[in-house]
């Protein structure tokens, strides 16, 4: 079966690009009709798309490469603030017809700045493992938050307001499709097997000519880039950013998505991202019992499906679910 | 100079509490190799237990008094030990053979569950409650220095518990079993160690420590609320890693260092707003040079 | 307990169905009002207070027959004190539930997140306690019933120079809170303009429990008084630790101090300190006494804090606007609210100015004998 | 005689006070099959770790293909042409048999992120080539039928062979085998000896072998070096070694154990 998620390179991998194009087209078409959607559902749908980008990109770091990072919210913050600042500064100077270009530039800038920070965070990962690395990434995330909290140019503690609303369903899901494409194709290539090899056994990987340092840093940089893009989307979706939104609990949320989806399983992670974004909304009717139920569901899921929600049988035929 | 010594005392007092909490983290980590995120919530439950027990025993033992404080602490520690054992039994034991990350997420789930449940108005409610005075407190003047008796109590209790814990782990039969389980669970089981009992004991002991830390923390800052454990919990977690997780003296050292660092940085104008960030930055620097923490042994992988 | 993925898929599918199958409710014989508040999470204390005040006001209004012959229905949503949530919550209230106005939030950062959505939908939003000037800058549908940081900061600066006769003041700010930073900024401006000197500026993070590092440094700077714009949960601990360190100068702050809990936790450590707020319960109008009594009765003897009073006022202010507009239409309601010249709130008589901010007097209280005593009134 | 492929010149490594390998000098020539033997703890695996860059020498030098390898990381050395297997099998346990070998081929590809992402014609051609190559290799070692199995689910003997195949996929000039016969029964050992000889002739590479089983070592190696307490006590042909009194003394009572602690 020609598919993005098939681990075999033998069949037509050209399929992967077709999926990407189809995904982007679908997103754009749906987005044309989005004016008719209820704004609440539209907002939630965009939240889901952003969660997908965050979870899939973290999956490259945590799932495929096996680096336990707790700093994804930090990358998201960096990307979000950079993108928002650019569009705030430039949007008065740009005519309406060029606004999409400005938005694209802002997202790319956000991604690049986040990637740069990812490079910085990736370097300690050369020396640290497991819990120690987790702490260091958590620390980086918190440092970013503290710095933003003290930066008056981005509103400091009172937040950055008045960010133009550029994020649409189309943008979000097109970028989600690109993220999925990049992570999935990257991992499903001879080059990309290196990520998993490093995860499985660093010493053996090194002895097979795979440079673990390079792979780990690459994973951090690419993961951070997309987290930054997600931050940019988030900023132009909520139209307001405050540093408290990017504390380590946000990182934990994303980690839960990755683990619940099954480390290294792209489809599972996508579904987990959607489920965990929808769940609190679905539970709203339970009012003040909502978060209690939410936490119980997480515990229950870990007991029932510890290997990830959607592992068995989904890995290979998962395309239908995207 | 006077300023320096005052800050030193402040820092040591704060660090002692971090150290005490970190001991609990590190002990559970030593035996089970995972970070018990719910530890900080057990700390909160300890403070609430004392909050409810204190008025209950007031008719029998006058408060504030030393006996009263000891009694309240003892009961709270027992309650929390029970809670800790229960958490382990219900949430972690079924996952014993599963990957550590699974247990980690479950621990986060348990932590959220306790926090949200306690915030519910039918339980404790979200508002801050005044913590009763358990110990009569006085301030000692050493020249121009001011030392609160509470701070001295905190430091004393930390040292006492650290020594006690060290004794339990190193010199008693159950401690030997704990170390055996930590070293190799299967081998320990084959040697006739009752793994379940040892792990329950570890959780009970760790949670009792958390209760004591919670009460001391509430004595220092006598307003308690369901999320009071989160912030010191993260700090203690950092402290445990800083000292080398799984290492008891390391946890104490890490806690003290972090407490001192926060206090001194907090006291510098212009830097105080970066306090949380600087603590982390120094932690990262230390870990870059000592990847397994200050006292942790970096395990060289055998090839 | 075994959950297979099929069940999960069912759950997701069911959830999706549930999400699409709802229309607008309300309308008809009730007026549906939305409220968003931090009922759980880090700032649940304040959110709960303002919610309780709002709820009390709605209940009183309904007991009195409602407005225009219609009763109110309050739809409350929790935002978990989390950034990102207010947008969802307010979108839901407006687009799914169909509320005619939105009440909330205490924290300016969360009000700022919700404001553009209310503005774009043409739904009036009334914030009970967001004091950051930026909140109402979002657009002409955004109002508030509290005074703003520049006013309160200036009031306290004048108080420090004139009443306290302080020339050297230390400022101790909660960097995590825009409220605290705002107050500190305007206080510093006012105080230095009046010839005073800021001898020390230190920061803490809301939720910290240990402040001794900063307080020791403040003590070394030997100020005449310390300005602590913060919330009562932190302030009580700051007062206790200041006392332990022998920092025996007056501490003073803003309306975030006002709560029974301040005295309950702080005990004698808060004695003698000052803060500015909206009303004084000891020198109060009958309106205030009635509110305090009603609140105590409704919530098991709990004494209302400033958030509760402001939450109460936000709902009453909305009802007043609706009755004057004679309609629940967004634009008409907006115009009526904006035209408010005098509204008799629990927190004082107020008018709405061109920036849609409440203009009202502040009072300064002192903690004495475990109660708040009136010191002076400062008119705008 | 031509320039040796691998040249150890008084290579030494000390851990604290312990000299794990001391003044080890040894030459390995192209297409030569050299055995490294010695009692438990003699430093054989440590010597391998020095050659592959896992450890750095404290003193002395190691040259490979005329280059001093000091400071080079294992993956750099693999590029130069050194491949190895491990005493305790280290496969990529979550990857399939096919992918284990595929991961090892990448260092000779014009790989890269850009190619993997763009998926142009060149990429597909290259991936096709890799596939053919990997399958060929697997088939030579009779593992082709298992290509989709998870590596960790294979029987022990197959795992050992897969590790060798994976090492060969890096196209080495020198292959280091760390106790390949450990845990095998006599029939399997017989097959392994044939296999090693086969690799030597088929791929025309030099092989270095750490092994406890004397029958295996004596049966196939052209040259044998004996280590004791980190020092080389003898070097020569199998016949010479068997007669060496120092070797006999060192081995008294220790022969035949599997474990190298």
Could you provide a short overview of the structure?
With 380 residues, chain C is α/β, with parallel strands linked by helices. Chain C has 13 helices and 15 strands.
Can you offer a commentary on this structure?
Chain A has one domain (3-304): Orthogonal Bundle (ABC transporter involved in vitamin B12 uptake, BtuC). Helix content of chain A is 68%, strand content 1%. Chain A contains 13 helices and two strands. Chain A has helices at residues 14-32, 39-64, 72-90, 99-122, 130-149, 169-187, 193-200, 202-207, 212-238, 248-261, 266-282, 290-304, 314-317, and strands spanning 160-161, 240-241. The longest helix of chain A has 27 residues, at 212-238. Chain A is globular and about 55 Å long. Chain A starts with 13 loop residues before the first helix and ends in a 5-residue tail after the last helix. Mean pLDDT of chain A is 83; it is low at 1-13 and 312-322. Chain B has 303 residues and is mainly alpha-helical. Chain B has a domain at 24-228. Chain B has helices at 2-32, 39-57, 66-92, 100-119, 149-171, 173-183, 185-190, 195-220, 230-243, 248-266, 275-289; strands at residues 129-130, 139-142, 145-148, 223-224. In chain B, a hairpin with a 2-residue loop joins strand 2 (139-142) and strand 3 (145-148). The radius of gyration of chain B is 19 Å and the shape is globular. The N and C termini of chain B lie far apart (53 Å). In chain B, 57% of the residues are buried. By secondary structure, chain C is α/β, with parallel strands linked by helices. Chain C has two domains: 30-147 and 284-360, Response regulator (Rossmann fold), CATH 3.40.50; 150-277, 3-Layer(aba) Sandwich (Rossmann fold), CATH 3.40.50.2300. In chain C, strands 7-6-8-9-10-14-15 form a seven-stranded mixed β-sheet, with helices on both faces. Chain C has a five-stranded parallel β-sheet with strand order 2-1-3-4-5, sandwiched between helices. In chain C, strands 11-12-13 form a three-stranded antiparallel β-sheet, with helices on one face. In chain C, strand 4, helix 5 (134-137) and strand 5 form a beta-alpha-beta unit. In chain C, helix 6 crosses helix 7 (178-193), helix 9 (232-244) runs parallel beside helix 10 and helix 12 (306-325) packs across helix 13 (330-338). The longest helix of chain C is centred in the N-terminal third of the chain and has 20 residues, at 44-63. Chain D has 261 residues and is α/β, with parallel strands linked by helices. Chain D has a domain at 6-81 and 172-252: Rossmann fold (3-Layer(aba) Sandwich). Chain D is 39% helix and 23% strand. Chain D has ten helices and ten strands. In chain D, the strands form two sheets. In chain D, strands 6-7-8-3-9-10 form a six-stranded mixed β-sheet, with helices on both faces. The longest helix of chain D is centred in the middle third of the chain and has 20 residues, at 121-140. Chain D starts with 5 loop residues before the first strand and ends in a 10-residue tail after the last helix. Chains A and C meet through helix 2, helix 9, strand 2, helix 11 and helix 12 of A and helix 1, strand 2, helix 3, helix 4 and helix 7 of C.
């Amino acid at each position: 079966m020609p598919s993005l998620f098939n681990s075999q390179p033998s069949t037509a991998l050209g399929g992967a690009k077709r999926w990407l194009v189809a995904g982007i087209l679908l997103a754009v078409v749906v987005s044309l009709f989005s004016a008719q959607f209820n704004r609440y559902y539209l907002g939630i749908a965009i939240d889901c798309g952003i969660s997908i980008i965050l979870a899939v990109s973290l999956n490259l770091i945590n799932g495929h490469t096996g680096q336990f990072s707790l700093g994804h919210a930090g990358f998201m913050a960096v990307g979000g603030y950079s993108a928002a600042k650019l569009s705030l500064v430039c949007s008065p100077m740009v005519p309406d017809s060029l606004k999409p270009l400005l938005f694209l530039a802002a997202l790319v800038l956000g991604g690049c700045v986040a990637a740069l920070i990812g490079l910085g965070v990736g370097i300690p990962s050369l020396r640290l493992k497991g819990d120690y690395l987790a702490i260091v990434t958590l620390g980086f995330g918190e440092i970013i938050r503290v710095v933003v909290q003290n930066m008056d140019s981005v509103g400091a503690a009172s937040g950055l307001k008045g960010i133009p609303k550029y994020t649409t369903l189309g943008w979000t899901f097109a970028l989600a499709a690109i993220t999925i494409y990049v992570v999935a194709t990257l991992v499903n290539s001879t080059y990309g097997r290196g990520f998993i090899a490093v995860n499985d056994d660093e010493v053996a990987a090194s002895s097979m000519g795979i440079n673990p340092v390079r792979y780990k840093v690459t994973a951090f940089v690419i993961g951070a880039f997309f987290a930054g893009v997600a931050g940019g989307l988030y900023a132009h979706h909520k139209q307001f950013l405050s540093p408290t939104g990017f504390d380590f609990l946000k990182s934990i949320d994303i980690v839960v998505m990755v683990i619940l989806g099954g480390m290294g399983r792209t489809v599972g992670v996508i579904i987990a991202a959607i489920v965990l974004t929808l769940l609190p909304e679905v539970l709203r009717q339970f009012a003040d019992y909502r978060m209690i139920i939410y936490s119980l569901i997480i515990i229950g899921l870990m007991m029932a499906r510890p290997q990830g929600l959607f592992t068995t049988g989904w890995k290979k035929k998962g395309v239908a679910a995207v | 100079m006077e300023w320096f010594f005052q800050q030193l005392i402040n820092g040591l007092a704060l660090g002692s509490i971090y150290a005490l909490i970190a001991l609990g983290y590190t002990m559970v980590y030593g035996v089970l190799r995972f970070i018990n995120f719910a530890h900080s919530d057990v700390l909160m439950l300890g403070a609430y237990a004392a909050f409810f027990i204190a008025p209950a025993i007031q008719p029998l033992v006058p408060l504030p008094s030393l006996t009263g404080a000891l009694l309240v602490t003892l009961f709270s520690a027992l309650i929390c030990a029970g809670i800790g054992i229960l958490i382990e039994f219900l949430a972690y034991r079924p996952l014993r053979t599963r990957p550590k990350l699974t247990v980690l997420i479950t621990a986060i789930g348990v932590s959220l569950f306790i926090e949200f449940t306690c915030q519910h108005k039918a339980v404790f409610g979200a508002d801050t409650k005044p913590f009763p005075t358990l110990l009569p407190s006085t301030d000692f003047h050493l020249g121009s220095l001011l030392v609160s008796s509470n701070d001295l109590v905190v430091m004393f209790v930390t040292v006492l518990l650290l020594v006690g814990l060290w004794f339990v782990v190193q010199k008693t039969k159950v401690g030997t079993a704990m170390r055996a389980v930590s070293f190799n669970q299967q081998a320990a089981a084959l040697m006739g160690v009752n793994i379940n009992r040892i792990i329950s004991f570890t959780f009970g002991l760790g949670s009792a420590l958390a209760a004591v830390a919670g009460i001391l923390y509430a004595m220092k800052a006598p307003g308690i609320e369901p999320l009071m454990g989160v912030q010191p919990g993260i700090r203690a977690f950092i402290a445990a890693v800083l000292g080398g997780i799984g290492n008891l003296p390391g946890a104490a050292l890490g806690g003290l260092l972090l407490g001192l660092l926060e206090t001194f940085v907090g006291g510098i104008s212009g830097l105080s707003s970066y306090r949380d960030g600087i603590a982390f930055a120094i932690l990262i620097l230390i870990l870059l040079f000592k990847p397994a923490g200050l006292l942790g042994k970096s395990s060289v992988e055998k090839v | 307990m075994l959950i297979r993925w099929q069940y999960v898929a069912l759950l997701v599918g069911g959830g999706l169905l549930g999400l699409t199958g709802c229309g607008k409710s309300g309308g008809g014989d009730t007026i549906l009002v939305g409220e968003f508040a931090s009922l759980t999470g880090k700032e649940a204390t304040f959110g709960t207070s303002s919610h309780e005040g709002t709820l009390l006001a709605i209940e009183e209004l309904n007991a009195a027959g409602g407005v225009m012959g219609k009763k109110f229905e309050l739809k409350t949503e929790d935002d978990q004190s989390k950034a990102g949530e207010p947008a969802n919550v307010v979108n839901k209230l407006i687009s799914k539930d169909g509320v005619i106005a939105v009440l909330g939030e205490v924290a300016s950062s969360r009000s700022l997140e919700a404001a553009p959505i209310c503005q774009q939908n043409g739904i009036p939003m009334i914030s009970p306690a967001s004091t950051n000037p930026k909140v109402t800058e979002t657009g002409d549908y955004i109002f508030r019933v509290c005074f703003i940081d520049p006013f309160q900061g200036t009031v306290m600066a004048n108080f420090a120079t004139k009443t306290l006769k302080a020339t050297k003041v230390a400022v101790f700010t909660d960097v995590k809170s825009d409220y605290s930073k705002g107050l500190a900024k305007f206080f510093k401006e006012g105080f230095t303009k009046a010839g005073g000197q800021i001898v020390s500026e230190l920061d803490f993070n809301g939720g910290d429990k240990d402040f001794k590092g900063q307080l020791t440094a403040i003590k070394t700077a030997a100020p005449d008084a310390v300005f602590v714009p913060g919330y009562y949960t932190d302030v009580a601990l700051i007062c206790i630790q200041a006392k332990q360190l022998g920092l025996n100068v007056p501490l003073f702050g803003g309306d975030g101090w006002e709560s029974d809990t301040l005295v309950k936790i702080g005990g004698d450590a808060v004695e003698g300190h000052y803060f500015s707020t909206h009303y004084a319960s000891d020198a109060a109008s009958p309106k205030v006494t009635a509110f305090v009594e009603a609140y105590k009765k409704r919530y098991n003897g709990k004494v209302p804090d400033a958030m509760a009073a402001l939450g109460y006022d936000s709902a009453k202010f909305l009802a007043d606007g609706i009755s004057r507009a004679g309609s629940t239409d967004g634009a008409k309601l907006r115009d009526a609210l904006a035209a408010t010249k005098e509204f008799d709130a629990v927190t004082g008589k107020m008018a709405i100015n061109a920036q849609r901010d409440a203009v009202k007097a502040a009072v300064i209280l002192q903690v004495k004998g475990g109660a708040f005593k009136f010191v002076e009134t400062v008119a705008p | 005689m031509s320039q040796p492929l691998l040249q150890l010149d008084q290579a030494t490594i000390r851990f604290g006070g312990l000299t794990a390998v001391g003044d080890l000098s040894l030459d390995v020539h192209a297409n030569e099959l050299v055995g490294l033997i010695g009692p438990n703890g003699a430093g054989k695996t440590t010597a391998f770790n020095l050659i592959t860059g896992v450890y750095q020498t404290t003193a002395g030098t190691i040259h490979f293909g005329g280059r001093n390898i000091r400071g080079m990381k294992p993956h750099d050395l693999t590029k130069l042409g050194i491949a190895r297997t491990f005493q305790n099998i280290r496969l990529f346990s979550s990857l399939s048999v096919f992918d284990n070998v595929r991961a090892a081929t990448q260092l000779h590809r014009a790989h890269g992120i850009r190619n993997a992402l763009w998926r142009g014609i060149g990429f597909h051609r290259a991936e096709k080539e890799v596939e053919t190559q990997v399958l060929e290799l697997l088939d030579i070692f009779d593992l082709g039928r298992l290509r989709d199995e998870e590596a960790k689910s294979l029987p022990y003997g197959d795992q050992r062979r897969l590790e060798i195949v994976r090492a060969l996929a890096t196209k080495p000039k020198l292959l280091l085998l760390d106790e390949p016969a450990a845990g095998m029964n006599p029939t399997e050992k017989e097959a392994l000896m044939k296999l090693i000889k086969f690799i030597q002739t088929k791929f025309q590479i030099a092989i270095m072998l750490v092994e406890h089983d004397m029958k295996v070592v004596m049966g196939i190696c052209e040259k044998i070096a004996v280590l004791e307490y980190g020092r080389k006590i003898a070097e020569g042909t199998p016949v010479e070694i068997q007669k060496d009194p120092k070797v006999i003394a060192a081995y008294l009572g220790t022969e035949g154990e599997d474990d190298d602690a």
